[in-house]
Write a structure and sequence with these properties.
Keywords (chains A, B): Isomerase
Number of strands of chain A: 4
Number of domains of chain A: 1
Shape of chain A: globular
Largest interface: A-B, 28 and 28 residues
Radius of gyration of chain A: 16 Å
Helix content of chain A: 40-55%
Structural class of chain A: alpha+beta
Mean pLDDT of chain A: 95
Distance between the termini of chain A: 13 Å
Oligomer: homodimer
CATH architecture of chain A: 3-Layer(aba) Sandwich
CATH superfamily of chain A: Glutaredoxin
Number of helices of chain A: 10
Active site (chains A, B): 14 (nucleophile)
Protein name (chains A, B): 2-hydroxychromene-2-carboxylate isomerase
Enzyme class (chains A, B): isomerase
Organism (chains A, B): Fontimonas thermophila
Chain lengths: 204, 204
Amino acid sequence: MAGCCLEFWFEFASSYSYPAALRIEQLARSAGVRVLWRPFLLGPLFQAQGYASSPFVQFPAKGRYMWRDIERICARTGIPFRKPSAFPRTSVLGARIACAFQDEPWVPRFVCALFTANFAHDRDIGDDRVVADCLTACGESAPARIAAVQTDPLKSRLRTQTERAAALGLFGAPSFLVDGELFWGNDRLEDALAWARGEHPLQR
Amino acid sequence: MAGCCLEFWFEFASSYSYPAALRIEQLARSAGVRVLWRPFLLGPLFQAQGYASSPFVQFPAKGRYMWRDIERICARTGIPFRKPSAFPRTSVLGARIACAFQDEPWVPRFVCALFTANFAHDRDIGDDRVVADCLTACGESAPARIAAVQTDPLKSRLRTQTERAAALGLFGAPSFLVDGELFWGNDRLEDALAWARGEHPLQR
């Protein structure tokens, strides 16, 4: 099957990345599609587009709507949700770790744990201790993983990956990339998986 | 059944309003939900939010993505599509007519004809003759309908309705409103219909 790999581009501060992260493994497994987890930072992409902040902060009506939409999505898909008391949260340390080790088997669990800390438990994922807790919960050595991304070459991988995201034409998160075909938004995950299976009418 | 009415808020210049308009009647009929067609103008809402133009014009990466996404959606749902050579197009005359007569039975056909002119036949819907052609195709008298919205009280209904859209918290199109619950985007049409049927987990 052509293109049975899907790149999942996400940002820990991004509200719609949360249900995507929690849904993707089961859906991809059912579809027979391999997922490549690709964390990046939205901030530089937003700045390059001229946004002063998250569009959900800059445009309050859109922000109010987004939280209700997330609540509905989580209720419908059985994902726990509590509106974070701060938004968007700093996500650099977690993203550096997820990026530095992105193809290791424990990373999906770490990613889901950190997303859940932010969007279900209202914990500050910008706090090293919260990141450490999520690493520990995955059976990883928190001090070792955190220390590893304090210096290059691992530290700068996130910046390089964020630059690649911009070069690929990404402008938001979550995004899914299949054979150069871009899908944006949690609500496009099923479409992206269908594309990875070659099942979209435009592919026939 | 509580709330089995759905307000469909749309703008003729809006790309994602197009598949929503062409899909809604059949889906709503199957769901047993009555649709209230509610045209409005996005321009004043975008201006109030601080956008200089359509977000798809202001943010080019998002605009490029949108056209491909629309192409995929139309292909998947069997809706004809040709990328308009101008975007966004002036939509005031068509919107004034659709608004002035919004609850008359010919309006859904007129709305779909005008959307199709813009997004499948690349016709300038800002041109009175294109609007007239769509009225004629619906069996309506084009001169009479066009003349009717040149003066008050019918002319100003669109402005009043656009102000109501802003007051309701709308910020984009298409939007669906069910018992005060807001859904934004063509991809939320099915969710809005489920809500109108009282089938969402948050309603139980």
